[in-house]
Amino acid sequence: MMLPFSRAFCALLVLPFTVTSLAAESPPTPPKPTTQNVAKCAKRDVVLDRLGKLYGETRQSIGLGSNNGVIETFASTTGSWTIIVTTPAGMSCVVASGRAFEHMAEPAGQDA
């Protein structure tokens, strides 16, 4: 069975791009993949277990993305956060993470 998201696709989502100069003649290029910037993918239950046990993160939001991928945001009370994409086949990839997460409960219809 072919997965809607390949490991290469997930890796593209987390590769940082470096811009050395706005006036550069050639476009910026992504760095070569290393163990630090390659997507971290595993079965969903393994990813959720690690997010909970290692970072104390719980699910804060969920949505359906392209190719029926489930997009979820996890966060902890200390402010760490992680966004994962899960394929219909159950493979989850960490696509972003950070710190200083805050829950915003804004009334509908108000601009941010």
Number of strands: 5
H/E element order? HEHEEEE
Pick out the low-confidence regions. 1-35
Instruction: Strand order, main sheet: write it out.
Output: 1-5-4-3-2
What structural class should be given to the helix and strand makeup?
Answer: alpha+beta
Element layout with pairings:
Layout: H1 7-14, E1 40-43, H2 44-55, E2 58-64, E3 70-75, E4 81-86, E5 91-98
Antiparallel strand pairs: 1-5, 2-3, 3-4, 4-5
Quick structural overview:
The chain has helices at residues 7-14, 44-55, and strands at 40-43, 58-64, 70-75, 81-86, 91-98. The protein is α+β, with helices and mostly antiparallel strands.
Q: Can you walk through the features of this model?
A:
This protein is α+β, with helices and mostly antiparallel strands and 112 residues long. A 5-stranded antiparallel sheet has the order 1-5-4-3-2. The longest helix has 12 residues. The N terminus is likely disordered. Keywords: Signal.
Which keywords apply here?
112 residues, alpha+beta, 5 strands, flat, signal
